[in-house]
């Protein structure tokens, strides 16, 4: 693992044998501000795999926060272990002390394997834990706005591809209907879409079918990608778009909530060659970080009574529709994939706004 060649500013290894904590915090960039990114709790097969995931996710957060127009850099943390059996108060609080030791260079929140309640415990030891439970003054579950922003990206893709910003009458195949995928289905059904779903957890599928009897369940993802559909929405773990999946896809648009969907850097070109419009994941799933950022600065933004405002965060997340349209239009104009354009736009903002730190302020 070439940590020094990864582009990350800082990588911190956190160990507390008494609680079983083994974690990696990767700070990719602080050019625009402190590095915000969630904490993933996952049973990685090796330390190298955990480090690689932290580095990859941290870089994606840099681009996500930049393209969302936030004054935040990118970071990510991973805790090695099974969240169902290894997660304890002592472990989470030990982790919180390592976050605090970074002095605000890294801001943490929820990710796969962690919950708002977990962040409440982490927050007992650090000022830099966000996305906490509402009872503790936090913004609560960020998956609602993540799904909302994915839906806005999907509307933009529909406008760009079919000339109307709606999924009404379209078929959308959703792979993974946990928190984000489940909320996304609610939005799609309300918009008049026909929805196909699958998930490795039968209970998650059943919850969706109970709310929406008209939704159709499919056996597995391999079957789902071969189903006739207008949009494919990967909403589970990363790496969903590999060579086999792209070759089998029947959809004209790919737009989903999962992070790091591309199995390798050549995938966007393969999608373009097949005429499939790809909405970059970090562009469309930024609703969660927008929600967390509003929790951090709600009072200074003058919300009613100060503090977090869901309506204000939702209004800002709605802007992802316009950003996605600009990405698609510029990609067409430049003859490149939307993935390349989104990267360029994020990098341009980092370069132009990030340089302002050279203008020294009085202390």
The number of distinct β-strands equals: 12
What percentage of residues falls in helices of 4 or more residues?
A: 40-55%
* Secondary-structure element series: EEEEHEHEHHEHEHEHEHEHEHHHHH
Describe the global form.
Answer: globular
Q: Total number of helical segments?
A: 14
Going by helix content, strand content and strand pairing, the class is alpha/beta
What summary fits the major beta sheet?
Answer: 6 strands, mixed
Which topology of the largest domain does CATH recognise?
Answer: Rossmann fold
Mean pLDDT: 94
CATH superfamily of the largest domain: NAD(P)-binding Rossmann-like Domain
Beta content: 5-15%
InterPro entries: Aminoacid_DH-like_N_sf, Glu/Leu/Phe/Val/Trp_DH, Glu/Leu/Phe/Val/Trp_DH_C, Glu/Leu/Phe/Val/Trp_DH_dimer, Glu/Leu/Phe/Val_DH_AS, Glu/Phe/Leu/Val/Trp_DH_bac/arc, NAD(P)-bd_dom_sf
Protein name: Glu/Leu/Phe/Val dehydrogenase
Family: Belongs to the Glu/Leu/Phe/Val dehydrogenases family.
GO molecular function: oxidoreductase activity
Task: Provide a short characterization of the protein structure.
With 363 residues, this protein is an alpha/beta fold.
Write the layout of secondary structure elements.
Blueprint: E1 10-16, E2 21-29, E3 35-36, E4 39-42, H1 47-67, E5 73-80, H2 89-101, E6 106-107, H3 116-122, H4 143-162, E7 171-175, H5 179-190, E8 194-198, H6 202-211, E9 216-217, H7 221-224, E10 231-234, H8 243-248, E11 253-254, H9 267-273, E12 277-278, H10 281-284, H11 287-297, H12 310-317, H13 320-334, H14 338-354
Helix pairs in contact: 1-14, 2-3, 4-5, 4-11, 4-13, 11-12, 13-14
């Amino acid at each position: 693992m070439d940590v020094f060649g990864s582009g990350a500013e800082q990588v911190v290894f956190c160990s507390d044998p008494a609680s079983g904590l083994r974690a990696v915090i990767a700070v990719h960039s602080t050019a625009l501000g402190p590095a915000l990114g969630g904490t993933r709790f996952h049973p990685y097969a090796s330390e190298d795999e955990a480090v690689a995931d932290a580095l990859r996710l941290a870089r994606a957060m840099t681009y996500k926060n930049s393209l969302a127009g936030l004054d935040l850099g990118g970071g990510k943390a991973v805790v090695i272990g099974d969240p169902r059996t290894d997660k304890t108060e002592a472990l989470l609080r030990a982790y919180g002390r390592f976050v605090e030791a970074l002095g605000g260079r890294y801001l943490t929140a929820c990710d796969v394997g962690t919950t708002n309640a977990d962040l409440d415990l982490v927050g007992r030891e650090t000022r830099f834990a966000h996305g906490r439970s509402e009872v503790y003054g936090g913004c609560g579950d960020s998956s609602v706005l993540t799904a909302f922003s994915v839906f806005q990206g999907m509307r933009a893709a529909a406008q760009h591809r079919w000339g109307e910003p709606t999924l009404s009458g379209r078929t959308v195949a959703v792979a993974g209907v946990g928190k984000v995928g489940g909320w996304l289905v609610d939005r799609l059904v309300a918009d008049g879409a026909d929805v196909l779903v699958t998930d490795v957890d039968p209970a998650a599928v059943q919850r969706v079918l109970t709310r929406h009897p008209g939704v159709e369940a499919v056996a597995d993802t391999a079957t789902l990608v071969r189903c006739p559909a207008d949009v494919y929405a990967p909403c589970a773990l990363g790496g969903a778009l590999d060579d086999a999946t792209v070759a089998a896809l029947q959809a004209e648009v790919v737009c989903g909530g999962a992070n790091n969907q591309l199995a390798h850097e050549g995938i966007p070109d393969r999608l373009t060659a097949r005429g499939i419009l790809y909405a970059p994941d970090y562009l469309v799933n930024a609703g969660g970080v927008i929600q967390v950022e509003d929790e951090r600065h709600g009072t200074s933004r003058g919300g009613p009574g100060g503090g977090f405002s869901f309506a204000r965060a939702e209004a800002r997340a709605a802007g992802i529709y316009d950003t996605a349209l600009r990405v698609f239009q510029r990609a067409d104009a430049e003859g490149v994939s939307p993935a390349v354009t989104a990267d360029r736009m994020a990098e341009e903002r980092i370069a132009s706004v990030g340089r302002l730190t050279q203008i020294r302020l009085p202390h």
